[in-house]
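[#protein-structures] MJ: dropping Sulfotransferase family protein here for a structure pass
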Amino acid sequence: MSLKQNLLRITRNILDRHHRFVKRKFEQSNRALLRAFALEEDPIDEAPQITNRITDDRWKQLQPVWVLSTGRTGTNTLTRLLNLAPGIDAFHEPSPELFQFSFDYYNGSIGREQALGTTIYLRDELVFRSIRDGFSYVETNNRLSYIADLLLELYPASKFIHIYRNPYDFIRSGMRRRYYCGHMRDYARITPLSGDPLHEQWGELTNLEKVAWNWQKINHHCLTFMEQLPSEQKMNFSSEAFFQAKPELIAELFNFVESVPYHPPASDIKSVMGKKHNAQEEGTFSVPENWTSSQIKKVNAIIAPVARTLSYDLRSS
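AK: finished. structure tokens for Sulfotransferase family protein:
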């Protein structure tokens, strides 16, 4: 073994021991906080010890929280914010990932029954583990938008949050990340299905129009899904309102999500909300104010109905 390899091995072992030590201490402290903030019974001892849905039907009462979005809406920051509460187990993109599966379900490559079975294998253990430890399970993965109906059937008491972003800002972010034009996840990026007005024209659209379609299609899908839910199982807000971090919205968010009452102090909230985690730093594309009249017209023709539903004003060309 070379000197360089030996130094790397030693460094890796030190970091691994440190990671395991810190992780263990965090888990111990978090459970202590969870117990300390409980109003009555010990939330961990009282948590349903569900291991599978075949022998135990208590999964019907569980309330995991699923965040629906297009992505690029602040869900990474939302995850960090929610994890300030000791009673919340929030994940951004937990493994197993859902890229290929959610894409295949969206385009009909797999049937509903197969998709339900797959979702059980992909998420049951994650949800049940959090619940067994006394936490509220939250996932902010944008791929959930395509499988929301499956999640509602498998966890009927679920709560859902729809977070959406100004269409022009999202489109610019997507263009900077080269959506539909070489991004590593383009293999699982949705396109119009047969019957969609743009299905036959897709190959003729500019990338700008394709990203605009992505914004309107996903948000329309989320809006349609959310309409069927009772008020106590849904919450929605814009990315812009979220990053303003007004106390009323933050309080409402924690009240909606967590099973153990706890609101982080303002200083902790400020430390998270003061920075856009996972903010776009690479790629270039002009700001919407500098788009051409033709670009604005093409984008508006695609996003208009959904943009108005979400109370966004259309830019004039």
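MJ: nice. The domain at 46-54+61-309 is CATH 3.40.50.300 (Rossmann fold).
AK: one more thing. DSSP finds eleven helices and five strands in the chain.
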